[in-house]
């Protein structure tokens, strides 16, 4: 029983430490007033073998937008949603059968902007490691978990160059993760990788093995200022396209 107790306390301590760090980086509804169409994703954290893991989905090949890409459960805000948290929980239930009451919501992190110019809010929540996903085949073709630490110490990583809304050249994170269960490589990139990296930096507070555009000593303020630069650039490019 001692071993069992040890495993339980390891799980608790991994969760406790993460919870405290995440709460310090909770932005609440600070960005909710921005006049962009809204979307949310749920970043579902679970503890397995004393380590934090992140649940991800693979988009169905039938979808018009980004078929077969890895993403977090999530989607566009609907009129009945009270806030970003509501949207993330509703979408996770629709996509993978995760009941909202089974999620311990911890915080909202600094949002991102997707290629459709939606303001996407990442909602972080803990779920039980026993959760069995029931993917909705119209939306999700697969579900897998990745150790959170992979997003600061990856085995396979390469930055992809892309053009930012302001016209300069940026770097996009791109990870390849092969899990034992599926034995297929999953490519995690774009906004999904961006949120996973931010989450891992907040939780572990250590320097990753690759370059990031944050001041790691002031992670929250530098991620907010990065976001505001992006938001301003997006607004300007929208104006010039009118």
From TrEMBL:
<feature type="domain" description="Nudix hydrolase">
    <location>
        <begin position="36"/>
        <end position="169"/>
    </location>
</feature>
<dbReference type="GO" id="GO:0003723">
    <property type="term" value="F:RNA binding"/>
</dbReference>
<keyword id="KW-0378">Hydrolase</keyword>
<dbReference type="GO" id="GO:0000287">
    <property type="term" value="F:magnesium ion binding"/>
</dbReference>
<keyword id="KW-0464">Manganese</keyword>
<protein>
    <recommendedName>
        <fullName>Peroxisomal coenzyme A diphosphatase NUDT7</fullName>
        <ecNumber>3.6.1.77</ecNumber>
    </recommendedName>
</protein>
<keyword id="KW-0479">Metal-binding</keyword>
<dbReference type="Pfam" id="PF00293">
    <property type="entry name" value="NUDIX"/>
</dbReference>
<dbReference type="GO" id="GO:0015938">
    <property type="term" value="P:coenzyme A catabolic process"/>
</dbReference>
<keyword id="KW-0576">Peroxisome</keyword>
<keyword id="KW-0460">Magnesium</keyword>
<dbReference type="InterPro" id="IPR000086">
    <property type="entry name" value="NUDIX_hydrolase_dom"/>
</dbReference>
<dbReference type="InterPro" id="IPR015797">
    <property type="entry name" value="NUDIX_hydrolase-like_dom_sf"/>
</dbReference>
<comment type="similarity">
    <text>Belongs to the Nudix hydrolase family. PCD1 subfamily.</text>
</comment>
<keyword id="KW-0694">RNA-binding</keyword>
<dbReference type="InterPro" id="IPR000059">
    <property type="entry name" value="NUDIX_hydrolase_NudL_CS"/>
</dbReference>
<dbReference type="GO" id="GO:0009132">
    <property type="term" value="P:nucleoside diphosphate metabolic process"/>
</dbReference>
<dbReference type="InterPro" id="IPR045121">
    <property type="entry name" value="CoAse"/>
</dbReference>
<comment type="function">
    <text>Fatty acyl-coenzyme A (CoA) diphosphatase that hydrolyzes fatty acyl-CoA to yield acyl-4'-phosphopantetheine and adenosine 3',5'-bisphosphate. Cleaves CoA, CoA esters and oxidized CoA with similar efficiencies. Preferentially hydrolyzes medium-chain acyl-CoAs and bile acid-CoAs. Has no activity toward NDP-sugars, CDP-alcohols, (deoxy)nucleoside 5'-triphosphates, nucleoside 5'-di or monophosphates, diadenosine polyphosphates, NAD, NADH, NADP, NADPH or thymidine-5'-monophospho-p-nitrophenyl ester.</text>
</comment>
<dbReference type="GO" id="GO:0010945">
    <property type="term" value="F:coenzyme A diphosphatase activity"/>
</dbReference>
<dbReference type="GO" id="GO:0005782">
    <property type="term" value="C:peroxisomal matrix"/>
</dbReference>
<comment type="subunit">
    <text>Monomer.</text>
</comment>
<dbReference type="GO" id="GO:0030145">
    <property type="term" value="F:manganese ion binding"/>
</dbReference>
């Amino acid at each position: 029983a001692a071993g069992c107790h040890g495993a339980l306390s390891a799980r608790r301590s991994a969760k406790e430490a993460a919870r405290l760090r995440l709460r310090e980086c909770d932005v609440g509804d600070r960005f909710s007033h921005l006049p962009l169409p809204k979307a949310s994703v749920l970043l579902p954290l679970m503890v397995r073998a004393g380590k934090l893991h992140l649940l991800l989905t693979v988009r169905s090949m039938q979808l018009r937008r980004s078929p077969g890409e890895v993403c977090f459960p999530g989607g566009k805000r609907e009129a009945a949603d009270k806030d970003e948290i509501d949207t993330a929980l509703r979408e996770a239930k629709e996509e993978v059968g995760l009941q909202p009451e089974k999620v311990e919501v911890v915080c909202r992190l600094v949002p991102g902007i997707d290629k459709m110019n939606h303001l996407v809010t990442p909602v972080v929540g803990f779920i039980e490691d026993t959760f069995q996903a029931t993917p909705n085949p119209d939306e999700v073709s697969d579900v897998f978990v990745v150790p959170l630490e992979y997003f600061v110490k990856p085995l396979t990583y390469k930055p992809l160059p892309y053009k930012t809304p302001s016209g300069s050249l940026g770097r996009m994170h791109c990870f390849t993760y092969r899990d034992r269960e599926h034995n297929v490589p999953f490519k995690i990139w774009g906004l999904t990788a961006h949120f996973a990296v931010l989450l891992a930096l907040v939780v572990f507070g250590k320097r990753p093995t690759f370059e990031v555009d944050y001041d790691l000593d002031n992670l929250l303020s530098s991620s907010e200022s990065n976001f505001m630069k992006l938001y301003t650039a997006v607004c300007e490019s929208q104006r010039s396209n009118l």
